[in-house]
Amino acid sequence: MLSPMSGLHQRRTARVPIEIKVEYKRINAFIADFTRDISGGGLFVRTDTPMPVGSEALFTLAIPRMEKPVTLKGIVRRVVAKGDPTTEAGMGVELLFDDEQERVALKRVVDALMIEHLGEALYRRFVETQKPADAG
Question: What CATH number corresponds to the domain at position 62?
Answer without folding.
Answer: 2.40.10.220
